[in-house]
Amino acid sequence: MKNYSGLAMLAGLSCLVACGGNDKVVSPGDSSSAGSSSSGAGSSSSFVVPDDGSRAATMADIPTVVQFPDEAGYSVKYVFDDSLSSGVYSKLFYKGTTLAVHAAGTYSLASNGQMTLEKGDCMGQVLDTKILCPENDLTYHPQALGFVVKDDTLMAGPSAEALVAVTAATWVSPPVGLHKGSDVVGAWQKIVMGKTVNYEFYPNMRYVTVTQTSADTIIETGVFDIQADRLLLSVNFSNGDYYPASFFSAAKVTGNLLVTSPRTGVTETLIPNGDLPASLDVASLLGLWEADKGTSHKFQLNFLAEGLLTMNAWGVAPPEMAYSDEGVYDVIGPWLVLDFNAGAGCNGNGTLGIMNVTGTQPLCYGLILNTADLQSDTLNFSNEFIPTQWTRVVP
């Protein structure tokens, strides 16, 4: 995909003193997970393919850049990841040939042709963003679109009754800058005012950032892409406050990665930080694992298909304490994420960990982010509340 041009601030977007946009910061307790946005699994959505010879579109039918009808006097293009792996999209609003607003987020396409658009954020010229993307309002950034193919023509719209023909479009990249997600793949690091931030961009368009200060370690995972010459980061999981979607201009200079925030205009230098670590094998992770927490508790984790997870814990000394919950898991490189925020038994306050024992009541916390090492039937993965070493339960 395309992304940020050189050192100019958001090439094609001449931001004024401050760029407009949705600056809402999300806290872990508000929403720690967004799930895997690139999934094309079956849908519970309400979109129905018209019974007129149309069929539900797949991503193979949808061009990387799609021209849509005008909205509110703006020409509109959608940009989707050409690798079909990041699940990141952009919605570009033009005044003539000038890019006025760039909206972005994540998408998934269901088997019935409904595309769900999530976690939108947008930036651009101040007056245009006030019209197109006021804070917490996605009026011109629809939550869902239906895509169908009829007589070899791609059609799209917010409902089956509002489908219109859409066509392939183009994006002309500037001669400088980075233009596809693979341009930033690798391990990078920056050190600013005593704070170390490590970036890991993986070939499957997933990323991890680890921010280390004297007091905290903040871990963030998500998806990324380069579209319309902008580096887009969309957060899936974080144990700290975060912007749901972030924009950067990016360029490589003498082997370093230079990123410029349009929010601040500040350019930061990321230096190479060795090789990316080896990735965890998801297929080998599936199944039931068991571990002891000292002499007080036993734990079971069951990694299921489609990113689903169950956890059980019970005390081994009176009074026996039973606990169970359901959640989701994710794997990014060697990083393993366990998220129980939406689970039936979890309070989901965003604190790292799953369970702490106070008297006879287990306290459930929402999220664990850590590296994992999988060797045959042994899984090393822990934090302060759960065991270090897990053993596969062989059926």
Summarize the structure.
By secondary structure, the chain is mainly beta. 3% of the residues lie in helices and 47% in strands.
Largest β-sheet summary = 11 strands, antiparallel
Q: What's the structural domain tally?
A: 3
Q: Give the N-to-C terminal Cα separation.
A: 44 Å
Helix content: under 10%
Assembly annotation: single chain
For the residues shown, what is the average pLDDT? Answer: 77
Number of helices: 2
**Uncertain stretches of 5 or more adjacent residues:** 1-23, 31-44, 344-363
> Outline, from the CA principal axes?
globular
Strand content: over 45%
Using only C-alpha atoms, the radius of gyration works out to 22 Å
Q: Which secondary-structure class do the elements indicate?
A: mainly beta
Explain the overall architecture.
There is one protein chain. This protein has three domains: 20-168, no CATH class; 181-272, Lipocalin (Beta Barrel), CATH 2.40.128; 282-392, Lipocalin (Beta Barrel), CATH 2.40.128.280. The chain contains two helices and 30 strands. With 395 residues, the protein is mainly β. Strand 13 (195-201) and strand 14 form a beta hairpin. The two termini are 44 Å apart. The longest helix has 7 residues, at 126-132. It is 3% helix and 47% strand. The chain has helices at residues 126-132, 282-285; strands spanning 20-21, 55-56, 65-71, 74-80, 88-95, 98-109, 114-124, 144-150, 153-157, 164-165, 167-168, 186-192, 195-201, 206-212, 217-227, 230-238, 245-253, 256-260, 267-272, 287-293, 297-303, 308-315, 322-332, 335-339, 355-358, 361-364, 367-371, 373-375, 378-380, 389-392. Strands 1, 2, 3, 4, 5, 6, 7, 8, 9, 10 and 11 form an eleven-stranded antiparallel β-sheet that branches. Mean pLDDT is 77; it is low at 1-23, 31-44 and 344-363.
